[in-house]
Amino acid sequence: CLLLVLFWLLQRHGVYSVTTVTKVSVKAGDSVSIPCLYHPKYTSHVKCLCQGYYYEFCSYAVKTNWQSSGRFLISDDREKKVFTVTIKDVREGDTDFWCIVDINRGRDVGTYFQMSVTRGKNRTWRTVVGTGAAEEIYRCRCR
Q1: 24 contact partners, CB below 8 Å, separation of at least 6
Q2: In CATH, what class is 14-118?
Q3: Which residues pair with 100 in a beta bridge?
Q4: By C-alpha distance, which of 62, 82, 81 is closest to 70?
Q5: Gap between the Cα atoms of 123 and 140, Å rounded
Q6: Long-range contacts of 49-57 (CB under 8 A, 24+ apart)
Q7: What is the pTM of this model?
Q8: Tens-of-pLDDT digits for all 143 residues of the chain?
Q9: Of 50, 69, 72, 98, which is least surrounded by CB within 10 A?
Q10: Cα(38)–Cα(17) distance, rounded to whole angstroms?
């Protein structure tokens, strides 16, 4: 559901660098997978999940050139131009993240997403693309 919606949106609105959901609501203790779509020129670059509100001060949780282990996993589908980050055993402090493409000898590119961690049942999350009159909202269910 989510991947198809994001691909459709990217065809319609275009990709500038990295695109993902803006906000995800997930139940504490559950796992969530977030697709991060990227421009074809970044196919051979290292992809990363960085944790923190400010990009300049975030901490890398996992990279595609690292051995994935622990709560954070990452995989890169170079054919589809999407890397997927998975956060297992979500905790209340898991709120601010960045999907990042590592640029050698240049400024990395990335996009921020926020997680709202709940204690009850899973809620729906929304993908918002565009601003103002061009804003479009799509709802799907969390895992």
Answers
A1: 32, 34, 113, 114, 115, 116, 125, 142
A2: mainly beta
A3: 48, 110
A4: 62
A5: 9
A6: 49/74, 49/85, 49/87, 49/97, 49/98, 49/99, 49/100, 50/97, 50/98, 50/100, 50/110, 51/94, 51/96, 51/97, 51/98, 52/96, 52/97, 52/98, 53/95, 53/96, 55/98, 55/110, 55/112
A7: 0.73
A8: 454 444 444 444 444 589 999 998 999 999 999 999 999 999 999 999 999 999 999 999 999 999 877 899 999 999 999 999 999 999 999 999 999 999 988 889 999 999 999 986 554 444 444 333 333 333 333 43
A9: 69
A10: 6
Q: Which residue has the tokens 């196919």?
A: 43
Pairing of the two strands 109-118 and 96-101? antiparallel
Tell me which DSSP letter residue 2 carries: H
Helix or strand (DSSP H, E) at 9: helix 2-13
